[in-house]
Amino acid sequence: MITEYLFWFLAFVSVFGGVATILSRNPVHSVLYLILTFFAIAGHYLLLNAQFLAAVHVIVYAGAIMVLFLYVIMMLNLNRLDAEKRTLIGKVTSAVSAGLLLLVMVGVARGGSEAGEAPAESIDAGLVENLGQVLYRDFLLPFEMASVLFLGAMVGAVFLSKKELNS
Amino acid sequence: MNTTAHLWDYLPILIMAIVALGFVITVMALTHAVGPRRKNAVKDDPFECGIPVQGNARTPFSIKYFLVAILFVLFDVEVIFMYPWAVNFRELGVFGLWEMFAFMGLMIIGLVYIIRRGALKWE
After folding, report:
1. Inter-chain contact A71–B65, Cβ cutoff 8 Å?
2. Is the ipTM of this complex over 0.90?
């Protein structure tokens, strides 16, 4: 089965990209590996018959979100000297918080496996027409909630940079 | 999974990806193979014929660039939500229209807030 080989290939690429993202010392290399991971995840979406989601994933994540990540990297002080200034308490706090996050993820993954496999959707379920029918009829409230989320994000982004705007 | 035949529908996309990636790789390899290689302190300067470089290129820059980028992403996602809606415009009818008006209304409130706060002003 070609889909099975494709799945294993994409799984390998996404895990490799994810591990390389956190292991590379250069933050810009991390971003490049993360783009690789995003493309592999888009491939997974295609295998799951979520075609529209795959396209949006490439456009938004690999396109727009990565630009945001690059901006964040550019705003960090990337001089070589600063890399060595990590204090012990910083290391401990980051290890503890990352460990807690991992705990949550493992818990979710374990809980999900008990629910059993999701029922196989039809091949066309992820096409734009069918997705729109479901999104704007059955999932109306989450869709409208998304606009509230956007509003919150806009206000938050403007508010957080307010200090510089006023001066 | 029964999508083996379906996978061939992505062949044009695959060909396009291969052509795009192959073009970049070919051109880069060709440049390195054909082009001359002269490395010295003057050639490696960022501005070979300009003023001497001062300081470091990697200094933190204004948050305003990031603000514009993050606002762009928000409106980008908003437009993506409009795409499945536009495809189903006739099927959803008036209800879908009001639905999208409510969605767009909140986005426009956000846009007005952004403009009124002067977040996009670039003095």
Report:
1. yes
2. no
Contact A100, A62 (CB under 8 A): no
Domains of chain A and CATH, by start? 1-80 (1.20.120.1200), 124-167 (no CATH)
Q: At what angle do helices B63-87 and B89-116 cross, to 10 degrees?
A: 160
Distance CA A53, CA A46 (A): 8
Tell me the domains of chain B and their CATH numbers.
3-116 (1.20.58)
Contacts of B76 in chain A (CB under 8 A): 59-60, 64
The minimal CB distance from B58 to the residues A78, A131, A137 is found for A78
Residue (of A80, A62, A123) closest to B6 by Cα position: A123
Helix axes A27-47, A66-75, angle to 10 degrees: 170
Q: Does A162 touch chain B (CB under 8 A)?
A: yes
Range in A24-28, A52-56, A63-67, A114-118 with the lowest mean pLDDT: A114-118
Distance CA A59, CA B81 (A): 13
Write down the pTM of the prediction. Answer: 0.75
Q: What tokens appear for B76 in the block?
A: 């980008």
- For residue A75, which of B45, B47, B69 has the smallest C-alpha distance? B69
Cα–Cα distance for residue pair B49/B79, rounded to 1 Å: 45
